[in-house]
Amino acid sequence: MPTSSPTAVTRLPKIHLDKTLVGRLEALASATMRRSPEVGERLLTEIARAKLVAPEKLRDDIVTIGSEVTYRNLSTDRVRTVIVSYPEDADIDQQRISVLTPIGVALLGLSAGATISWVTRDDETRVLEVLDVKPPAAL
């Protein structure tokens, strides 16, 4: 049952992942376990609960690597637009956030309208709502 509180989401939203990315995401999660076990565990948990789909069947409004995502932090009401990236492509000055950050893991696989709780590096629980998703730019 959904909650109206901006500090908790009782039911995890459905997520979808491009099945061709899973091997690399699992390897990244495993490599992260030593320096940031909570992020690595969360990424592995999200992969395990995701519906895996072929890349051509992944809807354009699903957050994947390279997606531009606009979300609202329901705790602060701040709206932000970011691009979810692999760690080597992350650049905060260009709003490119790594999938190996708490917010990157939280956004992965969501679609517009979804809300999810995530824990900041300062161990604060926040809730975000995805407002808009643009598919990765064609290469």
Topology at a glance:
Layout: E1 16-18, H1 22-32, H2 37-49, E2 51-53, E3 68-73, E4 78-85, E5 96-98, H3 102-107, E6 115-119, E7 125-134
Parallel strand pairs: 1-2, 4-5
Antiparallel strand pairs: 3-4, 3-7, 6-7
Beta-strand segment tally: 7
Net shape: globular
Structural class: alpha/beta
Radius of gyration: 14 Å
The span between the termini is 41 Å
Q: Characterize the main sheet.
A: 5 strands, mixed
| Residue share in helix | 10-25%
For the biggest β-sheet, the strand order reads 5-4-3-7-6
The helix/strand order is: EHHEEEEHEE
- The average pLDDT is 89
Number of helices: 3
State which percent range the strand residues make up.
25-35%
Structural features, described:
- There is one protein chain.
- By secondary structure, the protein is α/β, with parallel strands linked by helices.
- 22% of the residues lie in helices and 27% in strands.
- The chain has three helices and seven strands.
- The protein has helices spanning 22-32, 37-49, 102-107; strands at residues 16-18, 51-53, 68-73, 78-85, 96-98, 115-119, 125-134.
- The strands form two sheets. The chain has a five-stranded mixed beta sheet with strand order 5-4-3-7-6.
- α1 packs antiparallel against α2 (37-49).
- The chain is globular, with a radius of gyration of 14 Å.
- The protein starts with 15 loop residues before the first strand and ends in a 5-residue tail after the last strand.
